[in-house]
UniProtKB/TrEMBL annotation:
GO BP, one annotated term: carbohydrate transport
UniProt cross-references to Gene3D superfamilies, sorted A to Z: 2.40.50.100, Nucleic acid-binding proteins, P-loop containing nucleotide triphosphate hydrolases
Function: Part of the ABC transporter complex XacGHIJK involved in the uptake of xylose and arabinose. Responsible for energy coupling to the transport system.
Keywords from the UniProt entry: ATP-binding, Nucleotide-binding, Transport
Catalysed reactions, as listed in the record: D-xylose(out) + ATP + H2O = D-xylose(in) + ADP + phosphate + H(+); L-arabinose(out) + ATP + H2O = L-arabinose(in) + ADP + phosphate + H(+)
Superkingdom in the source lineage: Archaea
Disordered: region residues: 372-396
ABC transporter domain sequence ranges: 11-243
Name of protein: ABC-type D-xylose/L-arabinose transporter
Single Gene Ontology MF annotation: ABC-type transporter activity
């Protein structure tokens, strides 16, 4: 359907549940509200329910319980073709026997009664926008992967939908092209201002592209927040582990009120953290710290001794894998730091950078502290910096 009305394209999920074959729960108790015009990424491991979520909005799957609303209207009674949605898939799904122009016009011809010359005008305008105006007579097989991706996206754009649903649209592209198309999609979305829900298993894509990230695991919402927040203040251990690469380091520790004791180190916690832990402190905690937040070759108090096991040269930065009494610890260091295997080094964890999780529930015990702590301003830049680093690596 062409978006001719003025209704908002906000998307609300109310207690959405999807059960396959009467027993397999793919999505459960899912609640979220996406604002009109937002670019949302849905990220999670394979099988976490990302596609199911998208397919329910599109009408390709039924909703077992709960409701999804677009604007104020429940989609329950609305035919898929009348929902104002356009979907872009990983495999492009272009018709091989049709020209680019026919591929792009197909949806419009099928679902609208627009005149031929209006369809042609829109296709040309979109092809211009996508930089494929010289390929309108080509068949998909004559195009590069990037061009095919542009046709698939153009075919969605030309329909002027209220909502774009994108299911891993860039996974078939090589690393360099992927980075380029990512930027291109972001630019297009900004230009068009169309609500976009973008599914990916790639946490890096989620961090770099979206206004807000939905993190899913086993069909359940783990966190729904802007990239900075997901990175700097993960709701739980799953999010902390899934977002960021290399992943956050975790150490099993017990608290005696003022000190965290783990294998190979003792860590004095400042009063504000001790206060926050009050009541929940115990034997089953995990201390988390990101590889980029660890002070390498440090001096002073609260230090940890570690042994170098592997050095991974990554260009502007290196990654050093160390052993702390049987637990692996990854540290990001400048490119000119190349320690020898077996070398003993001293690490320090700044209290402003540590995370503490309840080992059983996975809950982030310092979440409130981080939300209110002025010190997080420094950490806020971490997500961008880490993402930029990875971008460089991918292109290289
Ligand atoms: P993701 O997109 O995160 O990889 P999916 O939404 O595709 O996850 O799938 C979530 C879970 O539901 C998976 O365990 C998958 O095997 C299962 N599933 C998906 N589609 C079907 C189906 N049509 N019938 C039965 N199970 C399904």
């Amino acid at each position: 359907m062409v978006n001719t009305d003025e209704t908002t394209a906000a998307v609300s999920f109310d207690d959405v549940r999807k059960v396959y074959n009467d027993y397999f729960v793919a999505v459960d108790e899912f609640n979220a509200h996406i604002e009109d015009g937002e670019f949302i990424t849905v990220v999670g491991p394979s099988g976490s329910g990302k596609s199911t979520l998208l397919r329910m909005i599109a009408g390709l799957e039924t909703i077992t319980a709960g409701d999804i609303r677009i604007g104020d209207e429940s989609i329950a009674g609305v035919e898929p073709q009348d929902r104002g949605i356009a979907m872009v898939f990983q495999n492009y799904a272009l018709y091989p026997h049709m020209s680019v122009e026919k591929n792009m016009a197909y949806g419009l011809r099928l679902t609208t009664d627009l005149a031929d010359d209006e369809i042609e005008r829109r296709v040309r305008e979109t092809a211009d926008m996508m930089g494929i105006e010289d390929e309108l007579d080509s068949k998909p097989s004559e195009l590069s992967g990037g061009q095919q991706q542009r046709v698939a996206t153009g075919r969605a754009i030309v329909r002027d939908p209220k909502i774009f649903l994108m299911d891993e649209p860039l996974s078939n592209l090589d690393a360099k092209l992927k980075v380029h198309m990512r930027t291109e999609l972001q630019r297009l979305q900004e230009e068009l201002g169309t609500t976009t829900i973008y599914v990916t298993h790639d946490q890096h894509e989620a961090l770099t592209m979206s206004d807000r990230i939905i993190v899913l695991d086993e069909g359940e919402l783990q966190q729904f927040a802007p990239p900075d927040e997901v990175y700097n203040n993960p709701a739980n251990r799953f999010v902390a582990d899934f977002i960021g690469s290399p992943a956050m380091n975790f150490f099993e520790v017990a608290s005696n009120g003022s000190t965290l004791v783990g294998d190979g180190f003792e860590y004095d916690i400042p009063a504000r953290i001790a206060d926050e832990l009050d009541g929940s402190a115990g034997d089953d905690l995990e201390l988390g710290i990101r590889p980029e937040d660890i002070d390498y070759d440090a001096t002073g108090t609260n230090t940890v001794q570690a042994t170098v096991e592997v050095v991974e040269v990554a260009g502007s930065d290196n990654f050093v894998y160390l052993d702390i009494e049987g637990t692996e610890c990854r540290v990001r260091v400048p490119g000119d730091v190349k320690p020898a295997v077996g070398e003993q080094v001293t690490l320090a964890f700044d209290p402003a950078d540590i995370h503490l999780f309840d080992e059983r529930s996975g809950e982030n015990l310092l979440a409130d502290l981080r939300t209110t702590e002025p010190g997080t301003a420094e950490a806020d830049t971490g997500a961008d910096a880490a993402a930029a680093e990875q971008e460089t690596e991918e292109v290289a």
